[in-house]
Amino acid sequence: MSTPNLPDHSRNGELFARAQKTTPGGVNSPVRAFKSVGGTPRFITRAEGPYFWDADGKRYIDYIGSWGPAIVGHAHPEVVKAVQDAAARGLSFGAPTEGEVLMAEEICRLVPSIEQVRLVSSGTEATMSALRLARGATGRDKIVKFEGCYHGHADSLLVKAGSGLLTFGNPTSAGVPEDFVKHTLVLDYNNVAQLEDAFASMGDTIACVIVEPVAGNMNLVKATAEFLRRMRELCTKHGAILIFDEVMSGFRVGLGGAQALYDIVPDLTALGKVIGGGMPVAAFGGRADLMHNMAPVGAVYQAGTLSGNPVAVAAGMTTLKLVQEPGFYTRLAATSARLVAGLSGAAKEADISFCADSLGGMFGMYFSDDIPASYAEMMAADKSRFNAFFHGMLDEGVYFAPAAFEAGFVSAQHSDAVIDETIAAARRVFAKLD
Ligand code: KE4
Description:
By secondary structure, the protein is α/β, with parallel strands linked by helices. The protein has two domains: about 10-70 and about 325-430, Aspartate Aminotransferase, domain 1, CATH 3.90.1150; about 80-320, Aspartate Aminotransferase, domain 2.
């Protein structure tokens, strides 16, 4: 079992020590630092299909897939070729390209609620811009989000964020002035009564509600159909904008995202991850009448040097082509279901309190008796047991998210044999868990 927090003289350990001299925590995104699980982060040297290899040459079955983008598998030859061909024509122009038009048309075709779309470079930019648009279009200041949901690191959204900050047990980021969050109302996920109370008391001052329709940043927690239906009704009644943050669920839980599964039409949608195929592409879009508020047409400003970057768009477009192959999502859902059933069976054999859930190509694992339906239920899960399981599986060459509060992801390259190898490893690890 890898021993967290002891001196690590591996190549990973050397790189981690070196990295911390020049970069806070040695990482460029906090969750990568293994703070929540302890131990040494693995520095990845290359990846292919369902695998990646660390600086010590060890191979892992990868269940984060870059936190969602690697849905067709790492280094897919068609995606790599598209990137190489695009790069050979120049990396970035700061001027419009046909590729951006094709991508915008494809997104509008695949997500019918999106009539107009703006490409950006990260999920944070997408949600931050959607919020500004909602406030600009309504002239209202208040926004509603839900505890445990994470929408990126824009100031007004770093309030009880679910990913990263939750991992650090710090529900509100330092450096965010009280003024910046006084308009942000944080409610409980899946709590219909609370949502109704909020709208009853201040509905006509609410600019928007932003929600992960399938939450993946407090582990996987699915919204109830009633929660989303009622949210839609209340937003419509009070003239508030409904924003679905599908940065993670978009093209992950199904081709049309969570909005297609739940049959709910949001006013705006944020996308990311899969639409970049591993390169920096994200987007926000929705009703044309709302999007016409965006500069240069309207008064809501947003911009980006690398927005719609041609090389990144080439990776995203090729990925969007590949996920439309017949049966892609049926197979992906069957893969995560096979994993979830196998893990649950292995835990049961070892008499471990554990359950798991999946939706499309994403899954959640919980060291608790029941699948959580809220942030509070998720927080009650046994984190220390998750951490021991995480390290046991890491030793076995299986890489799950390095935090109990994250969802996991499979790819089209996670074959039954790869899943079965994972289950066999889990059986050995569960048997050793105290
Ligand atoms: P980025 O700015 O990281 O591209 O996207 C922010 C974001 C927005 N909305 C949702 C629903 C998200 O899941 C994310 C980012 N997700 C995390 C995974 N928990 C990214 C991993 C990280 O922070 O390093």
